[in-house]
Specification:
With about 70 residues, the protein is mainly α. It has two helices and no strands. The longest helix has about 35 residues.
């Protein structure tokens, strides 16, 4: 997961957005916009988490503390 932070973010954002869209009411026009924005926000959070994990693994490898297991 840490090798592809953008892919990780998309893998979380798309299903989450689709789930929120399935729960949205038809009479509320703001619900789909909320679902898309919240899905993008969740994707961004997971992508940034994966990117920070990748940086942490690189640092530990450089210091010789982490063996890659």
């Amino acid at each position: 997961m840490a090798r592809h932070p953008i892919g990780t973010g998309l893998c979380f954002a798309v299903p989450f957005t689709l789930f929120l869209l399935s729960l949205s009411r038809e009479e509320e026009p703001a619900d789909p916009l909320f679902a898309v924005m919240f899905g993008l926000l969740m994707g961004l959070v997971f992508a940034l988490t994966a990117a920070s994990e990748r940086l942490r693994q690189r640092r530990l490898k450089r210091l010789g503390i982490w063996d890659g297991s």
